[in-house]
Amino acid sequence: MDLLFNVDWYKVFTPSMSIAELFVRGSLVYLMLFAILRFLPNRQIGTVGISDLLVVVLFAEAAQNAMASNYTAITDGVILVSTIILWSYSLNWLGYKFPRFQRFLSPPPTPLVINGRIVRDKMAEQLITQDELMSILRKQGVQKLNEVKLAFMESDGHISVITHSPVSVILPDTKERESDAS
């Protein structure tokens, strides 16, 4: 019965290592992972920003360790989570205040198609095949490559397309609404 209600409050809240060491460890892991993820091809990231992805992954790890008592104190997990928040906010703030720094945080758009011509070296950089590109273009209403004025791989992994003339897309239920109105 003693095991159910006996809590060593000192162990729960007193950090198991120095706060400075926890901050340095959290900072190094965050910045190392940020740098690795920043230089991966964009298509590997998807729609989540690099810093958002890092925050989620590192939060989960820090919280899991604090909850499962891999740390001897909850304070260790709180310090690591606070360090992650600090770096995430700081990098976003720096990117907002200094446009040159933002270019480091988010890669510039990569041109994949210019005036109907595929930019093969940029596609190779982003690991996109011509079939994948054409599939994405078709999903955006483009039937032929020569209809594309510009296509860019954006920093979030999506491909934006600018056509020579506006593409009109007729949705299936639009015809029904038009016939109902007449």
TrEMBL record:
Q: Which Pfam families match?
A: DUF421
Give the bilayer topology.
Multi-pass membrane protein
Keyword field: Cell membrane, Membrane, Transmembrane, Transmembrane helix
Instruction: Please tell me whether the keyword Electron transport is annotated for this protein.
Output: no
The record's subcellular locations are: Cell membrane
- Residues of the signal peptide: none
GO CC annotation terms, alphabetical: plasma membrane
Membrane-traversing stretches? 22-40, 47-67, 73-94
Q: What is this protein called?
A: DUF421 domain-containing protein
Organism annotation: Aerosakkonema funiforme FACHB-1375
